[in-house]
Specification:
Elements: H1 4-25, E1 35-42, E2 56-64, E3 71-73, E4 80-83, E5 87-92, E6 95-99, E7 105-106, E8 112-113, E9 119-125, E10 131-138, E11 153-161, E12 182-189, E13 195-206, E14 209-216, E15 219-220, E16 228-231, E17 245-250, E18 259-264, E19 269-271, E20 276-282, E21 290-295, E22 300-305, E23 310-316, E24 318-320, E25 328-331, E26 334-336, E27 345-347, E28 356-359, E29 361-363, H2 369-401
Parallel strand pairs: 11-18, 11-19
Antiparallel strand pairs: 1-2, 3-29, 4-28, 5-6, 5-9, 5-24, 6-26, 7-8, 9-10, 9-23, 11-20, 12-13, 13-14, 14-15, 14-16, 17-18, 21-22, 22-23, 24-27, 25-26
Helix pairs in contact: 1-2
Length: 404
């Protein structure tokens, strides 16, 4: 006669209640993954011949369940939810941990951190917004003004009216609208970010041929000579044998360098319809102050500037493991790798089986409260049943003691 089985059952049931209670307590913990107590029977090896009862039960493992939690919207653009596989990679002065809790904020130095001060890691970006996909490092958002960029290229796409009569005998004068057919004003920027306007003028000189002039603030550019000629085929498209890209130099008086840029008319047409501008874009911009940023599904952190420019500031990376259940729990919603989990597989979101990100949202705990309450009732009944086993053993023992 032994109390071993009942005692082991009480211990196992109590451990199960501990696990269930921890799940219930973390129902509202962002990124929390519920655990499950897993049991195994116990036998004495020397007696396990099929005729001996077991010695009870033990808790073989407390395994976390990494199923997806629900997604809830928030008002913080740095609240980031993971949809799919992966963990955030966090750094504490080089010590790396992993988390599913995406509640982040910038600290006083511009680093993106969680509530414990751990820094979110990812790929850095250079001054032009190009991502350096090397070793992940701490993500730091610079609040410095965005430096200006001088215009180096202007892409222009227009339709010139083929019905216009040629003006081959007229001397071009931007102040005289009878010496040209149409024009386009467009902004450009110098190396200090100052904006000015360059206007291009189109003069039809012969069938399917147009001269292009440029002027800025009343001053003719290129010495008053045409920048070049746009020659068209009889079908209305540009003649591929002649260039549609013209170099322009605009002197400035702001202390900046002269603006030297290419004016690209590739794609321009000459059809029998009214003159129209279909596209006009330059690659220069003024300086700007950071007004906000958000995170894309691919982890790209995009900053918005007062100049209207949007620039990549970095990219969040995710890490996954061959065996996530082998991760070592550290508390504070973090895990660390172990020999059982395998090495981390690090990459950009939406690549290599990693999940996507959703800015302005958090991943809820995956605890199903209703199921946990039912499990709690079941564990309570198991505890009571094992207690009854011990009580019965006690009654039998008392009967033996009372024998005379």
């Amino acid at each position: 006669m032994s109390f071993q089985q009942g005692l082991s059952g009480l211990n196992a049931a109590a451990r199960n209640l501990d696990v269930i209670g921890n799940n219930v307590a973390n129902t509202n913990t962002v990124g929390f993954k519920q655990s499950q107590a897993q049991f195994a029977d116990v036998y004495a090896n020397s007696l396990s011949n099929g005729t001996q009862p077991g010695l009870g039960v033990k808790v073989a493992a407390v395994a976390q369940q990494f199923s997806q939690g629900g997604i809830t919207a928030s008002n913080n653009s740095l609240d980031i939810a993971i949809s799919g596989n992966g963990f955030y990679r966090l750094s504490d002065q080089g010590s790396i941990s992993y988390s599913r809790n995406g509640q982040f904020h910038p600290d006083k130095d511009g680093y993106i951190v969680n509530s414990s001060g751990l820094r979110l890691t990812g790929y850095t970006a250079d001054a032009a917004g190009q991502i350096n996909a090397g070793a992940p490092s701490d993500i730091q958002i610079s609040t410095a003004d965005l430096p200006p960029r001088a215009t180096t290229s202007v892409n222009t796409l227009v339709n010139l009216d083929s019905r216009e009569a040629a003006l081959s005998s007229a001397a071009f004068d931007p102040a005289d609208s009878t010496t040209y057919h149409s024009f386009i004003p467009m902004p450009i920027h110098d190396s200090l970010g100052n904006s000015s306007t360059v206007s291009t003028y189109f003069v039809k000189t012969a069938a399917n041929s147009w001269d292009v002039f440029a002027a800025s603030e009343g001053t003719l550019l290129n010495g008053g000579a045409p920048l070049g000629a746009l020659n068209f085929l009889s079908t209305g498209g540009l003649d591929p044998s002649s260039s549609a890209i013209f170099s322009v130099t605009k002197p400035v008086t702001t202390g900046a360098n002269s603006v030297v840029f290419d004016m690209d008319f590739t794609g321009t047409t000459q059809f029998g319809s009214n003159f129209g501008v279909n596209a006009l874009a330059e690659d220069g911009y003024a300086s700007g102050r950071l007004t906000g940023f958000d995170v894309g599904a691919d982890g790209m952190i995009r900053g918005s500037y007062s100049s209207g420019k949007i620039l990549n500031l970095g990219q969040v990376v995710l890490a996954n493991f061959s065996n996530p259940q082998g991760l070592q729990i550290q508390g504070d919603n973090t895990w660390t790798e172990s020999s059982a989990s395998g090495a981390p597989l690090v990459g950009a979101p939406n690549t290599g089986g990693l999940g996507s990100l959703q800015s302005g949202a958090v991943e809820d705990s995956n605890v199903e409260l209703t199921s946990e309450l039912v499990n709690m009732i079941t564990a309570q009944r198991v505890y009571q049943a094992n207690a009854q086993t011990i009580k019965t053993y006690d009654q039998l023992l008392q009967t033996l003691v009372n024998l005379r």
